[in-house]
């Protein structure tokens, strides 16, 4: 896998993947940024969240669970001192669908965290990552 990071100016960059997708990254104004893109550490969390969400949805679909929606809400804390690494990350899944089996949802979250999500597993080597989930029936989610 290859990516290219091109400096724009100040602390603004464009990252481009080998698949041709691009994203703007920038720093906070107090650090010389113009606030025109995500912060790199935000992007790291989003990447991890997308990776684990991909797994959870795929596992639930393979288990023939009637999943309609999946949202990963991620809350992370960072060290106060430089390097301001993540110290804790909590991933809370909100999975929507009528008649979802809680055991299957729990299994999907656990398999992603322990076996399939490369990003989570890599980060878990240095960060405490916890997971939780809730199930919203479709009838409740629509109101």
Secondary structure elements and their pairing?
Layout: E1 3-9, E2 12-17, E3 22-25, H1 40-62, E4 69-78, E5 86-96, H2 102-116, H3 118-123, E6 128-136, H4 138-141
Parallel strand pairs: 5-6
Antiparallel strand pairs: 1-2, 2-3, 4-5
Helix pairs in contact: 1-2
Protein name: OsmC family protein
Organism: Methylotenera mobilis (strain JLW8 / ATCC BAA-1282 / DSM 17540)
InterPro entries: KH_dom-like_a/b, OsmC/Ohr_fam, OsmC/Ohrsf
Give an overview in words.
Pfam families: OsmC. It comes from Methylotenera mobilis (strain JLW8 / ATCC BAA-1282 / DSM 17540). This is OsmC family protein. The chain is an alpha+beta fold and 143 residues long. The protein folds into 2 domains: 1-38, N-terminal domain of TfIIb, CATH 2.20.25; 40-141, K homology (KH) domain (GMP Synthetase, Chain A, domain 3, 2-Layer Sandwich). Helices cover 34% and strands 33% of the residues. The protein has 4 helices and 6 strands; from the N terminus they run βββαββααβα. It has a 3-stranded antiparallel beta sheet, with no helix packed on it. A 3-stranded mixed beta sheet has the order 4-5-6. It starts with a strand and ends with a helix. The model has no long low-confidence stretch (mean pLDDT 96).
């Amino acid at each position: 896998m290859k990516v290219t990071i091109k400096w724009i100016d100040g602390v603004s960059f464009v990252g481009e993947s080998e698949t041709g997708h691009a994203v703007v990254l920038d720093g906070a104004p107090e650090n010389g940024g113009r606030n025109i893109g995500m912060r790199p550490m935000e992007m790291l969390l989003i990447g991890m969240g997308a990776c684990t969400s991909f797994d959870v949805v795929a596992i639930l679909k393979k288990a023939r669970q009637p999943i309609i929606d999946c949202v990963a809400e991620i809350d992370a804390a960072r060290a106060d001192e430089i390097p301001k690494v993540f110290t804790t990350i909590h991933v809370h899944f909100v999975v929507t669908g009528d008649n979802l089996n809680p055991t299957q949802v729990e299994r999907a979250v656990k398999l992603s965290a322990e076996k399939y999500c490369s990003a989570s597993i890599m980060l878990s080597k240095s960060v405490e990552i916890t997971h939780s989930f809730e199930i919203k029936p479709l009838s409740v989610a629509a109101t």
